[in-house]
Every structure is written in structure tokens, then in C-alpha cells.
Amino acid sequence: MTRIEVQELHKQYGRTRAVDGPTFTVEPGRVTGFLGPNGAGKSTTLRILLGLDRPTSGSALIGGRAYVDLAEPLREVGALLDAQAAHGSRTARSHLLALAVSNRIPRRRVAEVLEEAGLSAVAGRRIKTFSLGMRQRLGIAAALLGDPAVVILDEPSNGLDPEGIIWTRELMRTLARDGRTVLVSSHLMNETASFADHLVVLGRGRLLADTSMRDFIDSRIRPRVRLRTTDDARLRTVLRDRGFNPVREEGGVWTVEGAGLDDIGPLAAREGIPILELTRKEASLEEAYLDLTAGEAEYTSTGAPLNQEA
Ligand SMILES: Nc1ncnc2c1ncn2[C@@H]1O[C@H](COP(=O)(O)OP(=O)(O)OP(=O)(O)O)[C@@H](O)[C@H]1O
């Protein structure tokens, strides 16, 4: 079991403090989402983890060692950082073969990962003819080549079509189920909510959260119910009398914050208020994330949500 350990990591670029002392552990057997506004220090942390940059102080270790000290890095850590990095004049197959040979990985793994990534049919095409989504699949194939215990993916769904997005989601879940350590950065909150068990959130280089997905949402967003009735006036009065603050939204739907189904259902029954609909309103990761990171973004626009998914 190989874990990632980041300890009081600092990285200073001139006057910019890109990473400002986070300490966290990424555990095997689950998918950890790595989140944070633009400029939060995620890419810098990943680059340091993968030996592409040096920390100013502190450490980022994989299985207790720095990446540069790993004997056979591709067999221990698979990473997708920049899908454009592959050499364009090579074919997908020759790119993976070169990686396999230079890392003493059996050649049969090339065909296996091409198949797994859905690239077998285009394995003989030059990478420069690949779409962004195909490059992304190739980058993930390369990350899996050495059958590593640790997989690090930076924005894996970038450029992927819906089928590709589902594929990466299933892949990450499977890798974690196999006991691997999976760290995935993303800006897409609905996406992240669909694959991550645990979250590490940075803001301005600092650790803002290191918690399970469920606790992250539950600790930030109060429970809410939505309901409809034929007697709006009585509903409002009864709820207000009980200290709730019902808010009427479009379509005659009421939202009641800080209330559960058990509060509202029996109360409405006792008071004889006809209920047409009563449901728990699930809080989203996006709401919880925006609540946490408000004010932490290095660059924000005014008015528009920080993260919009297509
Ligand atoms: N090579 C570099 N030289 C100077 N400053 C840098 C360098 N790399 C990153 N930075 C700065 O460090 C800060 C953190 O950047 P980083 O790319 O790690 O953030 P990020 O969380 O990955 O952001 P994004 O979500 O936009 O990818 C930013 O202010 C960035 O401008």
C-alpha cells in the first residue's frame, strides 16, 4: 500500500507563494479529489510530487520517497499532467512502446493499455492527428502502462466526450477498488462528486479541507426540504410559528432551510395542511465548495459562478 504524503510543503516563485505549507496524506483504496480555485497551487504541488519542480521547503513523498529517488518511477506512479506533452510525430503505439522499453515494462502492456483506453483502432496513427480527447486517453493509457500503485491525474476529463468522461470515472473507481492510491485534480464539481470519496482542497497555497466527500458537504450546507401545498398562507404561518423561515420559489415551491423531512411531514399532518410534494433537497459539492472557497480565489469574475459545467 503506497500513500502520498505532503508535509509542510512550500514553494515560492519570486514574490509568489504558490504553495504555502499544506500537510495532507492521500490514502490507498479511494479516489481523492484535489480541488481549489485557479492559482491555488494544485499544479505546483503535483509537479513537485512528480519531481518536475523542487520545493522551497517541506516534502512531497510517494511511498516514503521523493519521485526522483524511485527506482522505477513508471512502475510505481502513473501520472497525466499535460496531455499535449507526447511527441506529435510518433504513433500512439510507438509512443507507448518507447515509454515501456525505457522503463523496463513488458511490451505486452502497450496493447493492453491501448485496448483499455479505447485506442486500439487508432494505435498506428500519428499523435498530431489526435483530438484533445484522444490525447487525453493516450495520456491516461501511458499513466497505466507500468501498472502503478499510485495514479495522479490532472483534469482527466479535459476534452473528453460523454462516453470518455464515463470511462474515466469508472476507471478511477476501479483503480481505487483495486487498492491503488488515486489523486485527481478537477475544476468540474459535478464530475468530482461522481468519482471522489475524499477531498483535499487548497486555496492560495494553503490547505482548506482534507475530509470525506460526505462530511465536506454536510458540514457546510444545512439540510433543506422542498415542498408544495394547496394552502400557502397556512403553511407559512405554521412554519414561522415553529421558528422556520420558509422561502417561496418559482412554481409555488417552498424551501425550508435547517429542516428535515421528519420535522415537516408530521407537522403538516398534525396541522391538516395538504402536502402535494415533500422532498429532501440534496446539497451539491458545488454549493459546499463555493461556500468554502469564497474569497480564496486568486482570480474571480464578479457575479458568475466560479465553476460552470457544460
Ligand atoms: N513557474 C512558475 N513561475 C512563477 N509563478 C508560477 C509558476 N508556476 C505557478 N506559478 C504561480 O503559482 C501560483 C499557483 O499556481 P498553480 O498553477 O500551482 O495553481 P493551480 O491551483 O494549479 O491553478 P489552476 O487551477 O489555474 O490550474 C499562481 O499564482 C501561479 O501564477
TrEMBL record:
Pfam families: ABC_tran (PF00005). InterPro entries: AAA+_ATPase, ABC_transporter-like_ATP-bd, ABC_transporter-like_CS, P-loop_NTPase. The keyword Aminoacyl-tRNA synthetase does not apply. PROSITE patterns: ABC_TRANSPORTER_1, ABC_TRANSPORTER_2. Gene3D superfamilies: P-loop containing nucleotide triphosphate hydrolases (3.40.50.300). Signal peptide: none annotated. The keyword Cytoplasm does not apply. It is an enzyme of class 3 (hydrolase). Residues 4-229 form the ABC transporter domain. One of its GO terms (molecular function) is ATP hydrolysis activity. Its EC number is 3.6.3.-. Keywords: ATP-binding, Hydrolase, Nucleotide-binding, Transport. PANTHER family: ABC TRANSPORTER, ATP-BINDING PROTEIN (PTHR43335:SF4). Belongs to the ABC transporter superfamily. This is Putative ABC transporter ATP-binding protein YxlF. It comes from Streptomyces hundungensis.
